Amino acid sequence: MSRTLEECDAILILDFACDCDLMSVVRTRWYGPNAGWRFRECRDEECGFHKWVDEPPTDRTLEIIKELKERDSKHLDQARRRRDRLVAMYEARLTAEK
Predict the structure, then answer these.
(1) Rounded Cα distance, 3 and 64, in Å
(2) What is the pLDDT of residues 1-24, one digit of tens each?
(3) Residue 43 to residues 5, 9, 33, 95, Cα–Cα distance (Å)
């Protein structure tokens, strides 16, 4: 069964329009208990429209997100330590050249 253009427009308006009658935008929550969830909100963020797009994530999805955040944090710490060592070497070299 196919839908008419008017029916499709009505579905789009009901599902995707915010309270300002603008097309809402999809964003992803990256922190807190809803990390990884996609949601729709007002493009101008003025009317306060908010609607979840995804079903709640599974326990496995939450576990993966947590592991990725920890891995990212570990890599950032390693990069900072590497940077600090390079800065110390550079400063020591500058001091030795004086």
Answers:
(1) 39
(2) 676 766 555 455 556 777 777 778
(3) 24, 19, 24, 54
As a whole number, the mean pLDDT across the chain is 81
pTM (2 d.p.): 0.43
Query: What range does the domain containing 62 cover?
Result: 58-98
Buried b (16+ CB within 10 A) or exposed e, 60-98: eeeeeeeeeeeeeeeeeeeeeeeeeeeeeeeeeeeeeee
If asked whether residues 98 and 82 sit together in one domain, one would say yes
Is there a single domain that holds both residue 5 and residue 33?
A: yes
What does the alpha-carbon distance between residue 33 and residue 25 come to, in Å, rounded to a whole number? Answer: 21
Residues 51 and 85 in one domain: no
pLDDT, greater one: 22 or 80:
80
| Residue 15, phi then psi, degrees to nearest 5 | -85, -30
